[in-house]
Amino acid sequence: MTTSDADDYPGRRLGLPREGAGSIARLGRRVGALFIDYGASYLISGFFAYDPLAIFAIFAMTQILFIPTLQGSPGHRIFGLRVQRVGGGWAGLWRPILRTALLILVIPAVVWDSDQRGLHDKAAGTVLLRG
Q1: What residues contact 105, with CB distance under 8 A and at least 6 apart?
Q2: pLDDT per residue as tens digits for the range 34-91
Q3: How many structural domains is the chain composed of?
Q4: 88: in domain
Q5: Which of 5, 48, 102, 105 could form a disulfide with 54 if both were Cys (CB 3.0 to 4.6 A apart)?
Q6: What is the pTM of this model?
Q7: Is there a domain that residue 17 lies in?
Q8: Residue 104, phi-psi category: left (phi > 0), alpha (psi -120 to 50), beta (remainder)
Q9: Which domain holds residue 66?
Q10: Does 18 fall in a domain?
């Protein structure tokens, strides 16, 4: 089945809507959520003299704790995003751990496929969606 470029959009191959709730999260919201989460981790790490390892540890703990419980980190939720398994459903416990480990490495998060899913999401079998 061939579609024209006009009919193709991020998330189409995954059966997601083009826009609105349940569509692929766009770059602006993703970056905003990342800044919120990283900024909060930076501020909290002030209790540890802004140790870079403490910042990463707090950031990782936030992701690993909140993705399975609230379907996203505080930054995700503030920007109306949620993380779920491809095909729908709860992300589980191991997916947020793998996703976060790859997110901290940065490179997997900035290499995307045509559905705007980073390698960290592809490896974990997750997708970041609009609320």
Answers
A1: 120
A2: 999 999 999 999 887 878 899 999 999 999 999 999 999 999 999 999 999 999 999 9
A3: 1
A4: yes
A5: 48
A6: 0.89
A7: no
A8: alpha
A9: 23-130
A10: no
Alpha carbon 29 to chain centroid, angstroms:
10
Residues 6+ apart with CB under 8 A from 80: 29, 130, 131
The full 3-state SS of the chain, as one line of letters, equals CCCCHHHCCCCHHHCCCCCCCCCECCHHHHHHHHHHHHHHHHHHHHHHCCCHHHHHHHHHHHHHHHHHHHCCCHHHHHCCEEEEECCCCCCCCHHHHHHHHHHHCCHHHHCECCCCCEHHHHHHCEEEEEC
- Percentage of the chain beyond pLDDT 70 is 95
CA–CA dist 11, 76 (Å, integer): 18
Rounded-to-integer distance, Cα 36 and Cα 76, Å? 9
How many residues does the structure list for the chain?
131
One-letter amino acid of 22:
G
Other C-beta atoms closer than 10 Å to the C-beta of 103 total: 21
Q: Is residue 51 part of a domain?
A: yes
